């Protein structure tokens, strides 16, 4: 059996989608025309696509591997054509697709009517009626099977789809692929990430994908606010609109541990799909990046940058990049972004109370809402976390499976003991401050919390702590 896809490795299902699209089609009608155009366009968009391209032997049962491929696909594109119903194999696939739609949450069907009218499919007339007359003769001992095929045809033909006249195939490819892409992107935004959709679309709107300029976008905020998560979802959802892409995770820590040359190698390896790139020194890496990146429209994410030197060695100048490229930088230091003169800076908002309770509930209880008796304590927990997703997830994991008395004990302890794991996140931000900024931060935290800002600035100015700059850097 020839399995043709965009590079995904098929395995038994583990609860996750293995493919994004399964193509159901009659090969002799579509293989060398519409199907080829559609498949190439899906692969170009980096949409993981399964099609079985083997010429099948008449009368052979559908292989179990093919049934598992259908179960492991998020979407099915069903291409009805003149001779579609003559294939018992196509009809078996279709019945399985409908079964998945009925039993598996999230499986979506996109019907395409290629050189055939939906009513012909729905009512099984014309070539479909002729095909079923033969099926009823061949399967007269198993008419239940034929009925299952008929019911599946009716169900799918009633779904809104595309009607494509023969000879106009190329005009419909883009809208079909765009519909699949947008649906897939929308689903990805909402999978287990509370409040992520609006925040991601705000960044996406800043990117202005489609324009031919080179744009740099900054995502700035305190540790634990969700900068990396937002950048990751943007990258996963929209990188298939670029010729190549790279996500450099945790630049700060990786640069300290492995060096900037390692990050340069990773960037070039991701973009050019080469695994043997070796850079002798950082300056040579800069020259190589400048020389090679201009050939492809790329999406580059630099996550958790904390100094200008990292930017200068990885993505400093717009003229390094091909027109249409986009660079996204996440950092805790807004000044870095302003120095680099990025096009736009996005500061994620803390989760609202409702979003925070939902995230806590999903983490603790696996449901959208707290269990009975836990609502009041859940409100106390999210109030303590101040809308920071990382803090909410940590506290939720700690409280998962605990009784109400244990929750109460935990809340009492939180009043006097800040969890070490959360403290470590904020410690990174504090350690990155200059000494005068650290001193300013500690003065405010210990003595001036809640005081009038002008009065505090006056006192700190007397102490020669340059408060106007230090306060801006400290918060």
TrEMBL record:
<dbReference type="InterPro" id="IPR044974">
    <property type="entry name" value="Disease_R_plants"/>
</dbReference>
<dbReference type="GO" id="GO:0043531">
    <property type="term" value="F:ADP binding"/>
</dbReference>
<dbReference type="InterPro" id="IPR027417">
    <property type="entry name" value="P-loop_NTPase"/>
</dbReference>
<keyword id="KW-0520">NAD</keyword>
<dbReference type="GO" id="GO:0007165">
    <property type="term" value="P:signal transduction"/>
</dbReference>
<dbReference type="GO" id="GO:0006952">
    <property type="term" value="P:defense response"/>
</dbReference>
<dbReference type="InterPro" id="IPR035897">
    <property type="entry name" value="Toll_tir_struct_dom_sf"/>
</dbReference>
<dbReference type="InterPro" id="IPR002182">
    <property type="entry name" value="NB-ARC"/>
</dbReference>
<dbReference type="InterPro" id="IPR042197">
    <property type="entry name" value="Apaf_helical"/>
</dbReference>
<dbReference type="InterPro" id="IPR000157">
    <property type="entry name" value="TIR_dom"/>
</dbReference>
<dbReference type="Pfam" id="PF01582">
    <property type="entry name" value="TIR"/>
</dbReference>
<feature type="domain" description="TIR">
    <location>
        <begin position="17"/>
        <end position="184"/>
    </location>
</feature>
<protein>
    <recommendedName>
        <fullName>TIR domain-containing protein</fullName>
    </recommendedName>
</protein>
<dbReference type="Pfam" id="PF00931">
    <property type="entry name" value="NB-ARC"/>
</dbReference>
